[in-house]
Amino acid sequence: MSIFFLTLLLMIILITVSSFASEEEDALLGLKSGIVDRSNSLRDWTKVNQTDNGSSSICIWSGITCLTDTHNNSVVIGLDLSQRNLSGSISGKYVNVLRNLVLLNLSHNSFTGELPAEIFTSLANLTVLDISRNNFDGHFPTVPSNAPKKNQLSILDAFSNSFSGPLPDEQLTKLEFLKVLNLAGSYFEGPIPASYGSFKNLEFLHLAGNLLDGEIPPELGNLKTVTHIEIGYNSYMQGSIPSEFGSMSQLQYLDIAGANISGPIPSTFCNLRHLESLFLFRNHLSGSIPFCFGNISSLKNLDLSDNSITGPIPDTFAKLINLRLLSLMYNQMNGSIPHGIENLPNLEALLIWNNLFTGSLPLNLGMNSKLKWVDVSNNNLHGNIPTGICYNRALSRLILFSNSFSGELSNSLTNCSSLVRLRIENNSFSGGILALKLSLRYGATYVDLSRNKFTGGIPENLMAEAPNIEYFNVSYNPGLGGIIPSHIWSLPSLANFSASSCNISGDLPQPTPNFKCSSSISTVELSGNKLSGDLPESIASCEALNILDLSHNKLSGSIPDQFGSSSSLALLNISFNQLSGSVPRSNNFIFTDASAFIGNPDLCGAPLKPCSGALAALSLSAQRKSVKRRISLICFGVVLLVAASICLLLYLIWHQKVLWKMISFTGLPEFTAKDILRSINSTYVNVNDFSTATVEPPLLSSSSLNICKVVLPTGITVSVKKIEWDSKRRRVISEFINSLGNVRHKNLVRLLGFCSNKSCGYLLFDYYLPSENLFANIVRLTTTSSSSSRWSVKYKIIIGIARGLCYLHNDCHPPIPHGDLKATNILFEEGNMEELHLADFGVKAILRMLNDGTSNSISSTVDDLIESASIKEEMYRDICSFGEVILEILRNGKPINAAGSITPSNPTAGESFLREILDENDEVKVGTSEESEIKLVLEVALLCTSSKPSNRPTMDEALKLLLSGV
Questions:
Q1: pTM to 2 decimals?
Q2: Is the terminal CB of the chain with fewer CB neighbours within 10 Å at N or C?
Q3: Sequence-separated (6 or more) residues with CB below 8 Å from residue 635
Q4: Is 864 a catalytic residue?
């Protein structure tokens, strides 16, 4: 009898296990039914009863982990669907079945909808929950009273989603085993719950980049186990940092940057004996740095920049032997730089610009550490550059401008082969500049020596071997003298050469049999010297030259006709020389003011006085020669075009034989490369398809990026941009394009796909009518919309632009600067100006990669900071462009000419400009909410266009300001 019951029990257990395995299989297939799988990464999720060894088939599915007992029975304990290009929603009823899950990872996809509450109510064994980098929205689910009391969750990562409402409160504090809580970048609102200070085992807390307000709760100081806290990039009520934070005895990393906090830095921070990184930049902190900071010997990174901190750098900083980054820039600090800093063995970056520091740099600065970045500009420092500042051959950036430094360069920079950027303008340096030869030879890209007292001329061999120099400025050194080096026209990377007011004499470099103008040189400024001789006609062949300033010299002879036919020269200033003859007829010169030619008594012709007599006849003869030359060029061009067409045909035939790869991002069916290429060949339309008076040409030149409209096999119309590269650049550009393909926001044009081979690639974007852009429609809006809706539409457009930029700057990692924000790159769906999309974001970065073809790996903290600084500069430009677009919208598309004069000392200009804006939006009645919104929007625009980049708000700050009026 007992054997019978034992057998029956075993059968019941097997049936139960089998039934549960079947339930899990059905639940997973149910989950799959709600998922959009563009890459078909879940293709092996099919219903098969068992594997060959008798275990459940679901255990060999992609992303599934099972636990098998001694009886070979399996249950699903892990579901990892991360980075699979998935979208759609997650159904709670299927999650409810997977009760044995220990790990659930849905990160780096595009899931939408609400997060199922069943994750918290049913998955009592769940230890790791990662839903980061998705688009889950709505309120974070609440945990009802019947939830498991002993939830095992230790890691909860919900970073970068689209949640709304307050931070989850009670449902999280019930998780007594929680160690990692990441709710950053997810649009949560309201204050940080005081209950967050009751976690018993929390080690990592990240709440930055939300819409949080209120005061920072002092209860967070009760987190005795926490090592890492990031709560910055929010807009707290200008309260101070709670002194209780000094009680977090295990804290190693604290970031409260960009958080609108004020008051002094708590002296209790000195109790944080394990603190390694403290970031409090871009706030309203005041008072001085506590002297006891010198006791935090573990400190590696200290950034207190962009505040209102006063007082000196504490002498006790000499004890911070682990310090790598010291950033105090943009404060009101004073006193001298403690000499003890020169002995810090790990110091890599000293950034103290825009303060009131006095005295000299420490004598042995750089001798005892691998110093990489020094920026002490805009202070009141004096003395020499320390002789050992580049002793360890690590210094890459030395920024000393706008101080009172003096002495020669030979003792400090002679062997500095690591130097990339040198800015020492507006000081009192003297002596020769030959000491920079090694720096220029090994990689310096930016050198500004202007407004000093250098002598000895520009040595001919100084720039002869400078493969990377892009910017060289030695202007306003009146005792420099010498001649212009012949190499300035042919250096491979040089874009800007400035040597104005340097008492330079001699002729401009003359063409040689091997003369070849660099394709990079765009600006040459040589005004206020003693240059003589003729204008070399070969200079006009510099295809990239935009600005040429030769004014106030002693040049003679005539202006070569080639200057009139230059296709690139936009600004030519040759005033106050000894030139004669007629100004060449040129479309370029039609818009050039006469001031560019005055001061040459024997020069005539438009835009100066008309030529007469023999001079006019000479001018007519020159015109005839010019016409003949143009006819010859046209004939040559026709022959060249025919030859190019034949070559293109042969190329296309060959091109089809090259291996192509197709990647479809979310929103595009699974086309093959053959489908795409056939569609491009059959419906190809060149840039003329986009020819309209309201649309500008493509951002990139035709040699690097072409644009066309293509109809794909299913009838989908897309916009296609073509990029050409060499094989060395393919990998880094492809990786960046793949990251663009994962960018998803309703206010951004979608990148749908990427088809490429070794030499080129096609980017497939959503197609919008060329005429449906802000530039073309802003005037139409003011004439066709009803008066009651005009401002409403404008306001929604501004908010939409802000949301798109905010996503690029704050929700993409790393951030993606737009790079070319303007009215023509703001597109609308046909007939609907309230649904806008930003186009061409990231294109500038692609162009830079095409030009550079380099990809540098970054390892150390300071190197990361340097790279971050470059991205920040681009984002600052985006923010300025955003402000300019706002002003353009406020002025109904009219030119912007008043904002630049508005300063705190000139409030009348601001009031006048506001009246002008209100007049342009005359449908808005005085005293209404719309008038208040216009004032708010104008205030944001002026903040964004501030001439000082650090005074501009970040995009998330700008968006919060704009939404504060809702």
A1: 0.67
A2: N
A3: none
A4: no
Which residues lie across from 711 on neighbouring strands? 717
Would you state the pLDDT for residue 2?
A: 53
Round to whole Å and give the CA distance between 351 and 667.
46
Quick check: helix, strand or coil at residue 724? Answer: strand
Q: What is the pLDDT of residue 115?
A: 93
3-class secondary structure per residue, 388-445: CCCCCCCCCEEECCCCEEEECCHHHHCCCCCCCEEECCCCEEEECCHHHHHHHHHCCC
Q: How far is CA 9 from CA 13, 14, 20, in A?
A: 6, 9, 16
The β-bridge partners of 764 are: 720, 753
Angle at 560 between CA 557 and CA 566, to 5 degrees: 150
**Burial status of residue 727 (CB atoms within 10 A of its CB: 0-12, 13-18, 19 or more):** exposed
Q: Which amino acid is at 648?
A: L
pLDDT of residue 288: 96
Tell me what pLDDT residue 150 has: 60
Residue 174 structure tokens: 């019930």
- The two three-digit tokens of residue 264, written as one number: 């002094």
- Residue 760 DSSP label: E
Q: Please choose, from the candidates 530, 548, 429, 443, the residue with its C-alpha nearest in 3D space to the C-alpha of residue 488.
A: 548
CA of residue 257 relative to chain centroid, distance:
18
Strands 505-507 and 530-533: parallel
Q: Which residues of 474-513 are buried (b: 16+ CB within 10 A; e: fewer)?
A: bbbbeebbbbbbbbbbbbebbbbbbbbbbebbeebbeeee
How many CA atoms lie within 13 Å of 578's alpha carbon, on the beta-carbon side? Answer: 10
Alpha carbon distance, N-terminus to C-terminus of the chain: 78
CB–CB of 381/350 below 8 Å?
no
What's the rounded Cα separation, in Å, for the pair 709 and 579?
51
- Interhelix angle 787-806/955-963, nearest 10 degrees: 150
pLDDT at site 350: 95
CA distance linking residue 509 with residue 486, whole number of Å? 5
For CA atoms 224, 225, 227, 231, the dihedral sign is negative
Beta bridge partners of 254: 229, 278
Query: How many Å separate Cα 728 from the centre of its chain?
Result: 24
CB 232 within 8 A of CB 206: no
Q: Distances from the Cα of 106 to the Cαs of 75, 88, 102, 539, 589, in angstroms?
A: 19, 12, 13, 59, 61
Which two structure tokens, joined as six digits, stand for 291? 């002297």
CA 163, CA 138: separation in Å to the nearest integer?
Answer: 5
Structure tokens at 411: 């003792």
Contact 320, 297 (CB under 8 A): yes
Query: DSSP per residue over 768-802, as a string?
Result: --TT-BHHHHHHHHHHHS-HHHHHHHHHHHHHHHH
Which pLDDT score is estimated for 829?
76
CA distance 424 to 439: 15
Q: How far is CA 321 from CA 278, 297, 303, 317, 342, in A?
A: 16, 7, 16, 9, 11
How many angstroms separate the CA atoms of 40 and 865, rounded? 39
Residue in 109, 69, 55, 103 with CA at minimum distance from that of residue 85? 109
- Per-residue pLDDT tens digits for 720-752: 888 887 767 777 788 788 888 878 788 888 888
Q: Which residue in 303, 820, 878, 956 is the catalytic one?
A: 820
- What local confidence, expressed as pLDDT, does residue 143 receive? 63
Residues 6 or more apart in contact with residue 864 via CB below 8 angstroms: 858
Which positions of the chain have pLDDT values less than 50? 1, 4-19, 49-50, 52-55, 590-591, 614, 616-620, 622, 626, 653-657, 683-704, 853-866, 897-909
The token pair that represents 934 in the structure block: 């216009």
CB atoms within 10 A of CB 292: 14
Q: Given this model, what pLDDT does residue 431 score?
A: 92
Candidates 276, 238, 234, 236; CA nearest to 254 is: 276
